[in-house]
Amino acid sequence: MLFGLYNYWIVVALMMLGFYIIIAHSNLIKKLVGLSIFQTSVFIFYISVAKIEGGSAPILEADTTLYSNPLPHVLILTAIVVGIATTALGLALTMRINEAYGSIEEETIQQQDKQL
Amino acid sequence: MFLKRQPKLVWLFSLLATTITFVISVLLLQQVLSSGTIIYELGGWSPPWGIEYRIDQLNAYLLLIISTISTIVLVAAHTSIQKELDTHRQAYFYMLYLLSLAGMLGIVATADAFNVFVFLEISSLSAYALIALGKDRRALWASYQYLIMGTVGATFILIGIGLMYQMTGTLNMNDLASRLPEVAQTRTVFVAFAFTVVGICLKLALFPLHLWLPNAYAYAPSVVTAFFAATATKVAVYLLIRFTFSVFGLSFSFTTLPLQTLFLLLGLLGVFVASIAAIYQNNVKHIFAYSSVAQVGYMIVGLSVGTTLGLSATMIHLFNHALMKSALFLAMAAVMYRIGGMQLSQFNGLGKQMPLTMAAIVVGGLSLVGVPLTVGFISKWYLVLAVIENGWWHVALLILLGSLLAIVYLWKIVEVAYFRSPAHNSEPVKEAPLSILIPVWVLVFANLYFGIDTRLSVEVAQTAAQSLFGITP
Lengths: 116, 473
Known about the structure:
The structure holds 2 protein chains of 2 kinds.
Chain A lengths: L5 H19 L3 H23 L19 H32 L4 H10 L1
Chain B lengths: L6 H29 L2 E4 L10 E4 L1 H28 L2 H23 L3 H20 L5 H31 L4 H7 L7 H18 L8 H7 L2 H26 L2 H7 L2 H21 L4 H22 L2 H32 L10 H4 L1 H15 L5 H15 L3 H27 L14 H19 L2 H17 L2
Antiparallel strand pairs in B: 1-2
Helix pairs in contact in B: 1-2, 1-3, 2-3, 2-9, 2-13, 2-18, 3-4, 3-9, 4-5, 5-7, 5-8, 7-9, 8-9, 8-12, 9-12, 9-13, 11-12, 11-17, 12-13, 12-17, 13-15, 13-16, 13-18, 13-19, 15-17, 15-18, 16-17, 16-18
């Protein structure tokens, strides 16, 4: 029972890991890494939902009757694209922040803002 | 690349696009009011396989709010953006603006839960980029923080939608609403609900999830603030209404789960904490950004009442708050155009130098407080009525107390602008150009007009609220 649903345990572990990195790390790049891990865990969750025991790939063939649900796969393709866009934008912002503040550490940036 | 050097052409095109959107949403509202819900099947695929667009009174009402504000703000955008952005960035600004608008309209129009997520990310991603366009380097940092918080929120919504799909096998909101009650007592549905609501509340900037909002609003280009303050949080409130009232149903949200108490508590706390924070700010845009958080609090209090009257109070406030905040922040854009700063000390003596702009800020501020003859009064009136109908006298008192706090932060600005003389060595400041003043005053007159003639805002909000209660048992 516990092992049968092991991919959900992986999802939860990755989700918490990613979330922890977002909160705990002050380096902007590391935060984005955390965000990516967090999003990826949700992708794995959707793919796990789609799995049907003994089902094959959802391709129409004469001798397959049982196949995985293709809809979550399609949804996650969209979500992956969104994730890439978010990461790219986040990295671009980090570059600009580095140019403007000369640092990508949260604490240094906040200190510089306070001095103004 | 020819267009990059001709931002005016891009502006005119964007203006054309938003004006057409505005005209269509007016026609749509008329049609929905006369003949009921309109359904459009995307690509001819019927639901639940295809994506369905569904416009009922609530959707049409929100589409109208968003398209109206975006058009009026865009009229002023050209002048304001010319001053605040480099020429080669201006064309991109309009592109991002239209993308963000498309995202918001999409969220409201669609009846497919996953489609909501996609549109949410379209509007949010362009919002992060728009905020980062601000001149101040703090805009970058604000945008980054918003990106992190916003993405966490959107991913929470995605998890919620995934769990709902797992339990029901559908993404269509109507199907979800009919199938969720069968499995309502499972832990999966509870978790789905929690993730969805927390995710939406992050986007909504409900206290205590509001931390990204003040800086994002304060350092974004002025017109961007005017656009987002009036529309972005409204769209999130719409989503909250849609999910708690239509999809999960009132009895599940408020009876099975303690959302009513939670919303009431957080709403009131939001009103007070944000209003008090607003009093201690020295940047005028910060003051009104915190006041936005407080106003979201009022909307959530209206939701928490859980009656038709409470829901219509929230919807009326959606409309009215969009009018007040767009007028106020657009007037800020006018001040920014002439002075180039938003510090309270820079407002010294502005009442004499920019009389029309300051008058607009005062009228908008009075509307925020809820003085009779302005839209703010209508909002407060219906909210207090709804709360009293439930017998919550103490809440009604707290709402009025919250309005008093609004007077305090408004007075700070009035005092500086009217009772202090400008610094002696400063250059004389002229009134803002007409291209900004006219949109500002159109919004100010709308603030006064809809404070007297409430047919549009109140009646549509009430029919929308009634239809929501008609669907949900």
